[in-house]
Write a structure and sequence with these properties.
It comes from Gottfriedia endophytica. The chain has one domain: HAD superfamily/HAD-like (Rossmann fold). Helix content is 39%, strand content 17%. It has a seven-stranded mixed β-sheet with strand order 4-3-2-1-5-6-7, sandwiched between helices. Strand 2, helix 6 and strand 3 form a beta-alpha-beta unit. The protein is globular.
């Protein structure tokens, strides 16, 4: 048996949501209500994110990258959390609906790129295009964009124990299939509502404390 940890990025490893931050900063105001439609499930995550970023000129690539790198705050304890998992031979995968142009550089000092799954961004056209290279498999019909349950199925087996760490609507479907969950914000509320096995957390030191007690 292997313990495999699938951890969200935006709002979980980082204290804020970088997708929301970029949309607020660089997309036209008229497009921002789409954020609410994604959160309440009116439109799919893939369609919403794709539509919002298609309004941002590719010429903003450097500005967007600098903005995110200057404003991102990593949640306390993440470095120690990564070191602990490595020492215990837990397998960590960052599964992010975020975009490679900011996810990779933010995490570069913490873990290798092979442990990161995220969306690829194309700046070759007039506006930003997202390539959905980790879309839903035949067991998912949610049009996730980056489908976290599909990634989990690809990288794990029935014998593995699965821990999911997340905060938002993008983490709900994978959380439903986990053996244990660490949750914040929206995901915490859904875990309560659906009676999923979870513990709340404020930072990664909270998660470390629980893992050292062998919650799974």
């Amino acid at each position: 048996m292997t313990i495999k940890v699938f951890c969200d990025f935006d709002g979980t490893i980082t204290e804020g949501d970088n997708i929301v931050s970029l949309i607020n900063q660089f997309a036209p105001p008229s497009i921002r209500p789409i954020k609410d439609e994604v959160l309440n499930g009116t439109i799919s995550i893939r369609k919403g994110v794709e539509t919002m970023f298609s309004t941002i000129p590719s010429a903003y690539q450097k500005d967007m990258t600098e903005y995110i790198l200057s404003n991102t705050i990593i949640r306390d304890g993440f470095h120690d959390f990564v070191q602990f998992l490595d020492s215990e031979d837990y397998e960590l995968t960052i599964v992010s609906g975020g975009l490679d142009f900011f996810v990779y550089p933010i995490l570069a000092d913490y873990l290798p790129i092979e442990q990161i799954v995220c969306n690829r961004t194309d700046f070759s056209g007039e506006t930003v295009k997202i390539h959905w290279e980790h879309s839903c498999d035949e067991q998912c019909e949610n049009d996730c964009g980056l489908c976290k349950p599909s990634v989990m199925r690809r990288l794990s087996s029935a014998e593995d124990k699965i821990i999911v760490i997340g905060d938002s609507v993008t983490d709900l479907q994978i959380a439903k299939q986990a053996d244990f969950i660490f949750a914040r914000d929206f995901l915490k509320e859904k875990c309560e509502e659906l009676s999923l096995p979870y513990e709340p957390f404020n930072d990664f030191y909270d998660i470390l404390q629980s893992l050292t007690k062998k919650v799974i």
